[in-house]
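Re: the request from the purification team.
They wanted to know what the chain is likely to look like in 3D before they choose a buffer screen. I agreed to run a prediction and write the result into the notebook, where they can find it.
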Amino acid sequence: MNLNQITLPVRDMAEATAFYRRLGFLQIVDTPHYARFECEDGGASFSLGLSDDDFHNGAVIYFEHRELDALVARLIDKGIEFAQLPRDERYLWREAVLFDPSGNQIKLYWAGQNRLHPPWRVERRD
């Protein structure tokens, strides 16, 4: 199996779609209650679903980019605000943190080989 997409809840579809396009994603589906975006590398997609209910999404969505620091600088120039600028984490990833207009947490990161092959990797399967 391969993870292809995740759907994030949003409160305001127009505001949310504008935000993700500003991050650089290509919007490929546009309806009043649902939108989908294509990631430029790897063929994955993610979507937004309009929620009329109050929610708190505890999930974190990660987007990997080899030139993380340059990407973050470009996004700051576009007016994107970050809760954490890029920094090296103890688990060998470099990460920046931001939130979309609906409060969904996003981590932009670069992990290189450590994403799938950290020094502490195990291989278990039933």
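For the purification team: The chain has a mean pLDDT of 95.
Please add any questions underneath this entry.
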